[in-house]
């Protein structure tokens, strides 16, 4: 049994999706970021960085793993699924996983901050991070032009990238002119395990909500950022 400590963010949903895909039994612990639960001593003992997600593998002497990419690798290696065993295949998966960890997530996260949450509209910053997010989307689209998935078969690399790319509207970035990326987004969204995973835990944010409701959500998230409570630009 695995304990999953998480919240309804792209990084959090990476792990619930993976656990559903792998059919691993787990107990969901949804942390309230607005109450700073991720900074409480009991959680810092699991993740010293005080961010979600994190897991504790009870079957492995209560082994704790933090950082979403590291958790995905751990789960894939534990089960022998969602990542090839051969060196080249494994490397391809890890390359596209690192592409998300070092590129897609940080750039979209910053786009969220400046486009949605920052009290002032700094157009230069908005243009910078939305533009870089779209550039990374074009890289993904190019890869998917000749590949069904990012690294051979469906893998943790697809899960990690999809969990962020699916939220593109919230970052103010569209998928216009990226037909291969759109095809991939739709195909993964149709997977039953993915549909279950993105509801665990459910998000207070409807990504297709009206602009008025989006602004209300952004206002609450802005308060969290201003007080230093939120650790996820992907809320």
TrEMBL record:
CDD domains in UniProt: GST_C_YfcG_like, GST_N_Ure2p_like
GO molecular function terms listed in the Swiss-Prot or TrEMBL record: transferase activity
Domain of life of the organism encoding this protein: Bacteria
InterPro entries registered for this protein in UniProt: Glutathione-S-Trfase_C-like, Glutathione-S-Trfase_C_sf, Glutathione_S-Trfase, Glutathione_S-Trfase_N, GST_C, Thioredoxin-like_sf
SUPFAM superfamilies per the UniProt record, alphabetical: GST C-terminal domain-like (SSF47616), Thioredoxin-like (SSF52833)
Residue span(s) of domain GST C-terminal: 86-217
One Pfam family from the record: GST_C
Keywords: Transferase
Record bears the keyword Transferase: yes
Statement: the UniProt record of this protein carries the keyword Transferase: yes
All residue ranges annotated as the GST N-terminal domain in the record: 1-83
Protein family: Belongs to the GST superfamily.
Protein name: Glutathione S-transferase
């Amino acid at each position: 049994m695995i304990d999953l400590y998480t919240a309804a963010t792209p990084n959090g949903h990476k792990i619930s999706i993976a656990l559903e895909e792998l059919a691993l039994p787990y107990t969901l612990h949804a942390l309230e970021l607005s109450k700073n639960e991720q900074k409480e001593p009991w959680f810092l003992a699991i993740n010293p960085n005080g961010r979600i997600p994190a897991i504790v593998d009870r079957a492995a002497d209560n082994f704790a793993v933090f950082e979403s990419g590291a958790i995905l690798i751990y789960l894939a290696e534990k089960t022998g699924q969602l990542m090839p065993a051969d060196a080249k295949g494994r490397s391809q998966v890890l390359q596209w996983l690192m592409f998300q960890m070092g590129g897609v997530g940080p750039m979209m996260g910053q786009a969220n901050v400046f486009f949605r949450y920052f009290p002032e509209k700094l157009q230069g910053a908005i243009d910078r991070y939305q533009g870089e997010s779209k550039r990374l989307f074009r890289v993904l689209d190019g890869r998917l032009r000749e590949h069904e998935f990012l690294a051979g078969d469906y893998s943790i690399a697809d899960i990690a990238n999809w969990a962020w790319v699916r939220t593109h509207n919230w970052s103010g970035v569209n998928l216009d002119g990226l037909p291969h990326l759109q095809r991939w987004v739709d195909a993964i969204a149709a997977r039953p395990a993915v549909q279950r995973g993105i509801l665990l835990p459910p998000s207070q944010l409807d990504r297709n909500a009206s602009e008025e409701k989006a602004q209300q959500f952004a206002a609450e998230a802005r308060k969290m950022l201003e007080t230093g409570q939120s650790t996820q630009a992907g809320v």
